[in-house]
Amino acid sequence: MDQSESTLTESIDSHSEPKLETEYTSEIFKLEVKNLPSNFGFGVFKKFLASLNLNFVKIKFPTGGSFAFVTFKDEKSREEAFKVLNETKYKGKQLQAVYSKAAPDPILNKRKNETLDDQQNLKQAKTENLTLEEKVQNSTTPLWNINYQKQLDQKTNCIKQLLRKCTFKMDKVNEGIFFWLQKQKDQHEGMCCKLLETVASPVVDDYRNKCEFTIGFNQDETKTVVGFRLGEYKTGSNEVVEPYACKNFPDQMRSFVKKFQEFVEMSEFKPVNVRTREGHWRQLTLRTNQKKEIVAIVVFDKRDLTEEQINSAKESLKKFFETSLEQLKLKGLIFNLNTNKTGISRMDNLETLLGEDVIFELFSWQNIPNLPKCLYEELLGLKFRISPLAFFQANTKAAEVLYQQIDKISGLDKDTILLDICCGTGTIGLTLANKCKQVIGVEIIAEAIEDAKINAKLNNIENVEYHCGKAEDVLPNILKKFNKEDKIVAIVDPPRAGLHNKVVQALRKLDCLKSLVYVSCNPELAMQNFVDFSRQQSKSYWNQAFVPIKAIAVDMFPHTVHCELILLLARYSNEFISNPPC
User: Fold this and answer.
1) Cβ-contact 428, 436 below 8 angstroms
2) Which residues of 74-105 are buried (b: 16+ CB within 10 A; e: fewer)?
3) Is 521 a catalytic residue?
4) Rounded to an integer, what distance in angstroms lies between the CA atom of residue 549 and that of residue 110?
5) Which of 192, 211, 436, 521 is labelled catalytic?
6) 54 touches 45 (CB < 8 A)
7) 564 is an active site residue
8) Residue-level pLDDT at 336
9) Active-site residue, selected from the candidate residues 27, 443, 472, 564
């Protein structure tokens, strides 16, 4: 093989090519070997590797480079080569082997692309024959026609795959946990920790307490529809479909959506048309509770309307619903004027048209007139005030199960100081306050902190305190009054995208923090946090790493592919190898 070629590749004849049916590619198990002589020869280097009795499959290197890529048959062969090469000199130079990211296999890529094309054509053919009811269910609740136990099995398998992927990533960032991690893999089917049985939702249908409905048109734009959009406009979809076939939201919402569609059909102002960028009624958000009470938030685009026209829209909306308050159990009707010309609703201009909150009558320090109407919800025997835009778990009954599982996995007792990071309106910390010595909540959104304080007072809970600010800024000052002997446990329940890396670094830096519970509604996005918690100690990541001990999935969203993951992490110790924590 001519070394003047831009890339040199050779397969070792002693290994037969794997069958494509296994979808194996040697690129999966690859090392980059650095610090090679600049003029090394391909054949000589191949013989050198063979002399080390390494079970390699392929060698690949650029012309004139001082490094090469070597791929192996399996993970065991790669691990053995990693150790041998890092202890070996080649032509007087100490070699350095590092793990390398797999390059896509061109044959498998071609095969997969052909398969995807076939699947896409088949999917398109099937979709064309579906009814609108089936289409909207596939779009919003894609598992709606699958047996619920099979849904749970599918979600469990997804979590298993994620924890195996997490094992692979953790192995790359911390050599110090290598032997412990290998033991975990052997004991837990390749996963980095024990996975407990997935917990089912107590309610499978009609469970959502919050839904956002699009106000728009049917496919040919001849009929006003309040419902769900089948796809994004950039993909060629402008169609809104009535939502009534969907299983995941309750009847009281269905009744309100029908009533609201009647109103929009008779209104002098039209729904928003994303194609022509005309119209004004954009979105309807509904929140409900177990008493079947409703608060509605209506988004209305200003565009070029005068103040008089906007007032006319508000007045017509108010008059239409003020005669149906008892029938619909409508506790609040809120109008949001959207002035954002890009079409994205900012929800920063709320005005209550019907209903008012009475919280200022309960607490003199909250004596603020014209507060937006809030719902109140019962959860694990506690009462919570839910502001119109505040985060609250979408499945109330499953949230109770989630918080009970957090209690079990966290190991709280009367001596525990609980750090509730990203505490929101305080639901997790308040439901656990009677199990521990003190709860300290930290949240960056000021309105949520105020809700948390109100919720504490509503339930006469006094062993809590709340701090508004970034966790990485607030935590060091809070924890100055504690010492290493104090038992401190952190619970983090971040938004979908996970924790900011600075928060991970701040938690790693806290000497007194020995364990934490991570609650994620999107484990795939949170996985980078899991890996960062387990990184080897460095200037950026102080103190010993946190490693996963056990995990449990809780199904909060039946008929969808999503579930909540609770992951318990603890400070790593070499004792874990011989005496793993429970």
Assistant:
1) no
2) eeebbbebbeebeeeebeeeebebeebeeeeb
3) yes
4) 40
5) 521
6) no
7) yes
8) 94
9) 564
